[in-house]
Amino acid sequence: MAPPDTPENIKRRASKEKINEIDNLLTVAVRVRPMNNRELSCSSIYDTIAVNQDKNELTVKGCLGLIHSFQYDHIFYSASPENCNFANQKDVFFTLGKPMIDNAFKGYNACLFAYGQTGSGKSYSMMGENCNIDDESANSDLQAGIIPRFCYDLFKRILQLPHTSCATVEISYFEIYNEKIYDLLAAPAPALDRRTPLKVREHPAWGPYVVNLTPHAVKSYTEIKDLLYIGNKYRATAATVINEKSSRSHSIVSIELSVCEIDSDGDDSGRRSKISLVDLAGSERVGNNSSNEDRHREGVSINQSLLTLGKVISSLADCKKGGGFIPYRESILTWLLRVSLIQLELSCLI
Ligand code: ADP
Ligand code: MG
After folding, report:
1. Fewest C-beta in 10 Å: which of 46, 75, 86, 251?
2. Which of 30, 31, 32, 33 has most ligand 1 atoms within 8 Å of its beta carbon, as the pocket-test mutant?
3. Under a CB-based contact definition with an 8 Å cutoff, are residues 145 and 127 in contact?
């Protein structure tokens, strides 16, 4: 298979036509989850959020009756199934995940982030409550989130490739806690009290990568499902053992798709894309004046990392207007994901 492009090569070859192949370079969506018991017991907040689907506008009633309106590319109203605009897990995947699969087959990298406070529904949207998508009928399983659906559809698409094409898929799953990286799929899994953080190095051509992160070559959705199950379980147990909440870490499922095509002359060409599906740490303000040193350190790392992510995304969104420096290196998350965000950077060059 022809070697895939390095980030620098991609940049050099960037052309308007190629970038225009991607439908939406940056998409921002919001999801309204059902109220929990605590919220339901407080009737004064029932009408806090209103959605105008025609204008893609969400209105929030703040303190003192102040109204704040926000516009998004998509609003998923999942608060009550009786509502005619109700969006289920499949709808969310269809709008946000499916276009990423289309772009992955064209050879583009992409990132999807779930951002919000703890309890706002990030993990439910990204992973869902189970990953059991075993056949076409079960695909309507309401509980599976974007990640399992993405993986399921990826293999469905691979099976539809012409016989002159072949594809390989590699998956890794890791978390970033206190600016340190832990493999969730290391084999054998290290004892939880002795797991050591992995280092990040920078390859001169390929950019930053995690040293010794285990890539798993997978051949079917079932293989991915088993790995997700192991990673989720390890993450939850690790969180309990070190007395951390899993919402204090960012978790990243990274999928590399390589597609090779052989033309009628027998020449082959390769495309590779890297997709990062990220369940971010809770965005609530955590213990700036916390008496517990560990909690304080966690809070500082999370704030720093989310702040940097915000800065990177706004610099990328603004760069067409002549913005310059993109502070990828200010956090491990953005530094590592640079390669998945590169399409946005390319759009600034044309
Ligand atoms: P986060 O990951 O942001 O901390 P979770 O995804 O764990 O939040 O969601 C908190 C709770 O709300 C969970 O019990 C989850 O099942 C429930 N929940 C979140 N979003 C939805 C939704 N769209 N529909 C039904 N339940 C949801
Ligand atoms: Mg969560």
Report:
1. 46
2. 33
3. yes
